Prior knowledge:
Largest sheet: none
Oligomer: single chain
Radius of gyration: 12 Å
Number of strands: 0
Structural class: mainly alpha
Shape: globular
Mean pLDDT: 94
Helix content: over 70%
Amino acid sequence: MGMIDKDYLRNRIQAAETGKAEAFYDLGLLYSIGHGVDQDNIEAHKWFNLAAMRGMISAQIDRAEVADGMSHVEISEAQRKAREWMVTH
């Protein structure tokens, strides 16, 4: 993707607001590698989790990979953030 375009990030966030699984997944990828955003495993796990709940197998796989590098506390935090997102959207 090269240098990330802020419009792309904005577009993905807007799409996530409408509940698009692909947008959740894309945001998970961006946070997992720190592309255009600060690298953040908790945020990556949260977005992958939301995509996985919508049935995306690739998100389940990537969530597991991210979780490998996280503590139990971090995973709990990510799960809490995913639940919060679902309640507020």
